[in-house]
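Hey team,

Filing this mostly as a record. A colleague (T.K.) asked me to run one chain through the structure pipeline before their review meeting, and I want the input and output archived in the tracker in case anyone asks later how it was produced. No errors, nothing strange. Just documentation.

Input sequence:
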Amino acid sequence: MKKIGILFGKERTFPDAFIERVNSKNIDGIQAEAVKIDKVKQGEPTDYSVIIDRISQDVPFYRAFLKNAALTGTAVINNPFWWSADEKFFNNCLATKINVPVPKTVILPSRDLPTDTSDESFTNLTYPLDWEDIFNYVGFPAYMKPFAGGGWKNVYKLTDMNDFFDKHAETGQLVMLLQEEIVFEEYYRCYCIGGKYVRIMPYEPRNPHHLRYVAGFKPGAEKLKEMEDIVLRINKYLGYDFNTVELALRDGVPYAIDFCNPAPDADRNSVGEENFAWVVETAANYAIEKAQSYAENKDNLTWGEYIRTSANKQPLFS
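Output structure:
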């Protein structure tokens, strides 16, 4: 029996529907369930051929469990080693090398000193920063947000330099990104599963949360293809099995705004019934594919093009 597990927190609609959908297919030798953990011993395998991870970004114990599971052969969705290494600023840096338009972005040291550091810990940091050049590069209005994390937490819209310094003073030990504002005509949130299945969803981030998937625009065939190509290219290089990419169209050009979402919103109540049905069905089919191709005592993880070419000492970008 090849078991597919899903590891999750307080969410219910997607995990329950995912388990039910996999099991309803009645595929011989395949069974899905909520992951059960009663002990974690070093170097010992789990009972699962595949685990979909929806919560380890918030629970370090789960991330350590998943790394051990991956080491002993479980196909973890998403790769916990890469997920631990990745963050939004690197995503933007990578995008500049793979011909994906992104907003002008800089990373900023935290306003307050990190715990267990002092001024002497920052010997190599010039103070003050070259604020004039930074502000000229990004421009105003601008957005400031954490370089890691998500869920629209600690996101600020800034009108000018004084507004920046006032808001940055509130960010404590968070490392922040300062990012050019993309004034968009249309905005899309795009699921990508298995590096090959894409769903482009009109999305209006200026609406209240429960209405963000209610938008009055729809891409034409040519624009749809262009966005699909961008989504697939991003996930090819990052190596995520389950991710969302947010694209803002300014003057018809799709700018990738946020594409480090390895546990993206998949709640029926927010994404809507049609999108929910797609993500449940597609995730179930992909997890079954991974279970069927599972090879015992092998590395069953997905590794992105960036890591694979680096490991093989090949040219990173052509």
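Quick notes for T.K.: The longest strand covers residues 242-250. The mean pLDDT is 95.
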